[in-house]
Amino acid sequence: MHDRYTDEGRSTMFKKYFGKTRLSHSITELVIPAAIKNCSHLFTRYDACKNSKNNEVNNTFVDILMSTTAAPTFFPPHKIGNKAFIDGVMYLNNPASTAYDEAIRYNVPKEKISVLSLGTGYYLPDPSNPDQYSNLLFWAQEQPKMMISAQEYETDCKMYRELKNRYQRWQVFFEEPIRFDDYGSIPNLLELGYQYIEELDCSDENPINTLVESFDLVKCFLV
User: Fold this and answer.
1) Which GO terms fall under biological process for this protein (predicted)?
2) pTM of the model
3) Is the dihedral of CA 98, 99, 100, 105 positive or negative?
4) What count of other Cβ atoms lies within 10 Å of the Cβ of residue 197?
């Protein structure tokens, strides 16, 4: 199976904005997931700063972004040295618990951690029976449906158990399938996002205010 696109466009854009900047140069903590072989891999500012002279740990943002956006079937794996990386979604579709674990590793008090996890949306062929499709990710029309919901479900359970209302997972559902590379749908996606936020804001429980009120110290961001 051939990859649909080459690396040229992404590489040019990342080099334009990030040049040779390395992860240790970031002014805030970053935890960026990718995947290598049969497991997840994290690029973290924390480790990069501790090993700033080791270029195998303190990678450039160009290499990191090329790795974390190398979606299978769309882009080829990105090589850093003798290692080949792909999109972290393969093992961390919802990386919220990974961010939480990293914050704990940085000695951030649990009560000062709040997490907002943003999903990328689901298409349900049969909205009246959503559970039937909760374990499917529609990468592309010709690709087999990939089982990833277990990781998402386990993450949600863990985070709600640990943080209660200081953890929120925002997810929208599509009436029609949207291809992974359908950039023409971006305006529609933005509109769906605005509608979702308005609905949350108008709800009786108003989860937006609940989350904002819990903010004290934000320590980790995930890409």
Assistant:
1) glycerolipid metabolic process
2) 0.79
3) positive
4) 12
Q: pLDDT digit string (tens) for 29-60?
A: 999 999 998 889 999 999 999 999 999 899 99
Give me the helix-helix angle, 96-105 and 149-163, nearest 10°: 50
Alpha helices for the chain (secondary structure H): 8-18, 45-50, 61-68, 96-105, 149-163, 186-202, 207-214
Among 200, 146, 191, 132, smallest CA distance to 170 is for 200
**What is the CB-side half-sphere exposure of residue 112 using CA atoms within 13 A?**
11
Region of 164 please: left (phi>0), alpha (psi -120 to 50) or beta.
left
d(CA 188, CA 204): 26
- Beta-strand (E) ranges in 120-172? 122-123, 167-170
Q: Name the band, by pLDDT with cuts 50, 70 and 90, for residue 4.
A: confident
Q: What is the dihedral of CA 63, 67, 70, 76, to 10 degrees?
A: 70
164: exposed, middle or buried (C-beta count within 10 Å: 0-12, 13-18, 19+)? Answer: exposed
Tokens of 218: 């934000």
With residue 39 as reference, give the H or E element that holds it: strand 39-44
